[in-house]
Amino acid sequence: MRIGFGIGLGRPVSVAGVAPLSPPTLTLTLTPATPAVGDLVTITGIAGGNPAPTDFASLSLTIGGTAVGLAGSGLSRTFVARAGAIAAAASVTTTEGTASTTLSGTVAAGPTVATISGFGSSTIEGDGASGTAAYALSLIGGAMGAGTIRNKGIAGTVLQNSLASGGVPLASNGRDRFVADLLGANRSDRLYILYGANDLRYTGAPATFNLAGFATDMREVMNGLLRGGYARGEIVIGSPNWYPDSTYSVGSAGFTGSNRTIHEAYVNECLAIATEYGVAYADVYGKLRDLGGVALMSADGLHCNDAGHQVIAHAFLTAAQVNARAAVTVGAASAPSLQTLSLGWTAVAGAISYTVEAGLSGSYGFAQTATVSGTTNSFTGLAAGVYVGRIRANFADGAGPWSFWATPVTVSDTAPPARTVTGQDTFTGKVAGTLVEALVPTLGTWVRHASSTGNAAITSDSVALRGPGTTSQFCVATLANQALGAGVFVELDYKVLTNNAQLTSYGVARASSADLTFLAAGYNGSAWRILKYVAGTATVLGTYTFAESVGALPTMRFEVETGIQRLYRNDVLVLTTTEPDSGLGTTGTGLGLRIGAGTTAWTSANGAPYTGIRVGRLGA
Q: Which GO terms describe its molecular function (predicted)?
């Protein structure tokens, strides 16, 4: 018997019911096919071959030449779109070979800003993400083209400063830190607020720490931000992020025992507050719940993974303002008489009434409230203090957003002191072209300060005193000296010919004869201001924004007492500052005027020249 062995080589033979092996194939698709900035985009690999690829061997994506972070697994990844040309490259590998492909496209340009801020707790801070580039705030900044990202998230914090179980507010709460973190030098072009996830989980002091406290303090934050210079379109409030029911039983002392009903009440409150103030609202809760749920959470069940941070960024970037009703244009508030605060505003089409509120500056609360049908309101019987306020129009289908008074108003409960005139001059009827130091006043003697760089002169029509006819010059001149005593005042009559911020007309009090050190108050073409000058360096102490009508003839009175300065416009107190005497350097007793030219020179037909001046002391 012979036994033979042989090896046969050839193409695989298909076995009945089994597909033959084949090299892989790969194509890429985008959903949506033409994404916009902020869209949550899915890049999907459609793979073929036997065995079929189940994952990318490699995948890279750039938009506008910048690498974009991806989240997901398998043959699907997600990312938040930013503006620019899309370039993706991917490959898959199996035992039968490798397939590669590319994809290109464009995301149209959207709005860009220079700076953004995020304000909240651990999610804004970035917990759960794989690194800084994967933080929701970093993704938002990339999409908005922001060169500066201010991350003001602090893990473990709450928004409200309500009393916790220890009888004091929790540390670093948002209500107590928003001024320092979000205003002044930290003010950004866009602000993204994400608070509430920890507030709703805290059950340690339900009588004092609850939804009502959260709502009150969120409103106080909004009041402060809008009064502090943010526009409604620059703020986005996000709802507390979603997490599964199991998370309610996990946490440190006091942070367990909440439930879905409480959670969603906080979500609804955030929407209500965004509507009340007319800012944008991001449904972070709904997006996380509907676009992945548990799959978007990190292992602790509270924080989001990279895919979850992508969804949060998407929610913020696609947020929209939720109250499209008209806002009120607020007029100037004033204190026309003792214990009285008055305000006027422009009528809003379709409004059936207006809600007006006022309260002490610094409190963020509004104890005084009224609903009126007209366009003026006065609060009477007020205690002395500095007041701020807000107003909104009411329509048949709801209320419009709050508008805030531009400038605090001082309300007095005592009559102003008597005034004794010690120097005065009426410029009307003087010889045209006469310089201020050559004028003969009714009372007193004019002295032009030696540090002046230009001249003040009578206008060509002999009706007023104008400033320097050359740019970048000023003239300081005093009419009388008066010891501070109980106080001093400067009163100036104006004739507004044009409004130009480069032409300033101020009254001067306590001027030193040795250097340019004095207090000043007056008009700059768009606002009334109180300033201090120390050795020529000016500091604005307060501003009352009010543009005078061309042709107006306002009178300003500037009163100075120890540690307090008051500016009256037409006998209405519109601005009070409290600069201490110790901050003024070496001051003198001169009373008079400062009139200056910036990039525009004075003529006889521009600016707000003076038609009269009175100076003297306060009190009998």
A: hydrolase activity, acting on ester bonds
Matching CATH number, 22-107, of 3.30.390.30, 3.40.50.300, 1.10.860.10, 2.60.40.3780: 2.60.40.3780
Compute the average pLDDT of residues 143-153: 97
Assign domain 419-618 to its CATH architecture: Sandwich (2.60)
Torsion of CA 204, 206, 208, 212, to 10 degrees: 130
Cβ 331 vs Cβ 311: under 8 Å: no
Measure the CA–CA gap between 389 and 361, rounded to whole angstroms: 9
Q: Provide the terminal-to-terminal Cα distance of the chain, rounded to the nearest Å.
A: 144
- 10 Å Cβ neighbour count for 262? 16
| CA separation for the pair 177, 548 (Å, rounded) | 37
The Cα 86–Cα 104 span in angstroms is 5
Q: What does the buried/exposed string (b/e) look like for 71-96 if buried means 16 or more CB atoms within 10 Å of the residue's CB? A: bbeebebbbbbbbbebbbebbbebee
Q: Tell whether the torsion through CA atoms of 258, 262, 264 and 266 is positive or negative.
A: negative
Rg of the chain over CA atoms, in angstroms? 34
Distance CA 543, CA 537 (A): 17
Q: Is 151 helix (H, G, I), strand (E, B) or coil?
A: strand
pLDDT digits (tens, 9 = 90+) for 171-203: 999 999 999 999 989 999 999 999 999 999 999
Query: If 0-12 CB within 10 Å is exposed, 13-18 middle and 19+ buried, where does residue 162 land?
Result: buried
Third-level CATH fold of 115-321: Rossmann fold (3.40.50)
Instruction: State how far the Cα of 235 lies from the Cα of 226, in Å rounded to an integer.
Output: 9
Decide if 22-107 and 115-321 have a common fold.
no
Residue carrying structure tokens 């009372």: 443
pTM of this structure: 0.71
3 state DSSP class of 288: helix
- Boundaries of every domain in the chain: 22-107, 115-321, 340-411, 419-618
**Residues 609 and 497: beta-carbon distance below 8 Å:** yes
Cβ burial 125-137 (10 Å sphere, 16+ → b, else e) = bbbbbeeeebbbb
Tokens 């204190």 found at: 335
Of 443, 438, 444, which is closest to residue 465 (Cα–Cα)?
Answer: 438
Structure confidence by residue, pLDDT tens digits, 105-114: 999 999 999 9
Q: What is the largest CA-CA distance in the chain?
A: 147
Q: Which residues contact 240 (CB under 8 A, 6 or more apart)?
A: 194, 195, 196, 197, 199, 200, 263, 266, 267, 270, 284, 285
As a whole number of angstroms, the distance between CA 270 and CA 266 comes to 6
Element (H, E) at 493: strand 488-494
Can you name the CATH fold of 340-411? Immunoglobulin-like (2.60.40)
